[in-house]
Amino acid sequence: MEITSSIKIEPKSQIQYSKCxxxxxxxxLVFFLSSAILAHKLVYFGNYMTSVSTFVLPFTFILAxxxxxxxxxxxxxxxxxxALLSEFLFAxxxxxxxxxxxxxxxxxxxxxxxxxxxxxxxxxxxxxxMISSIFINIYAITKSKILLKGRxxxxxxxxxxxxxxxxxxxxxxxxxxxxxxxISDMPQLILTSFLFKVIFNPLAVIPASYLVPYLKKKxxxxxxxxxxxxxxxxxxxxxxxxxxxxxxxxAFQAKSK
Length: 257
Known about the structure:
Blueprint (H helix, E strand, L loop, with lengths): L20 H17 L4 E4 L2 E4 L5 H15 L1 H27 L9 H8 L2 H29 L5 H25 L8 H34 L22 H8 L1 H6 L1
Antiparallel strand pairs: 1-2
Helix pairs in contact: 1-2, 1-3, 2-3, 2-5, 2-6, 2-7, 3-4, 3-5, 5-6, 6-7
């Protein structure tokens, strides 16, 4: 009996996919979740108290800048909502896990409750803060890219990140640390966390400045969001003009010829 396969193998040249966005998305999710999990881990630098997530969060904003700069606002928006959904699922799993009774003989069961019992509060604060800040961040990146014709990414990223991180820090600290940290310590915690982010941002934007042109060349793509709907809750291509999508997505091809 002759067995024939119904599977059609497409030539490699006909298969369209992004070579790098998968890895960028995974790195983004790692920094995104890490900043939430480490929020209540407080450390002192001299006399100044801050959260460990202060040193992780800048990578979240910078990576969002990179993705918005190369792939456009719409794809960056989809990634942000996917990350928020992932954090929601993670919070549900942690809530169920810490509520399950464990044998008293297992001494480490209490540690899980200590670490993750407050994650629901952190999740709420993180979601509200992220929605309020990250969309402003990527909006500023994509709009300033058009105005400056794609130049000065490092400067645009620093400016957008500083604004976004200030909004994020203000909202997240108030929600996540209310009732946990004395009210008298809140202004110092907000200011210190924000200033450390500002100082740490250049360390993140330097490699990003080299990554952006590499990705544009590697992916043969450079999106200019001239016809994009910037509604943050809209999931899709984000273009008001469907005919314009291919033109703006493959703008790099036209410029490179």
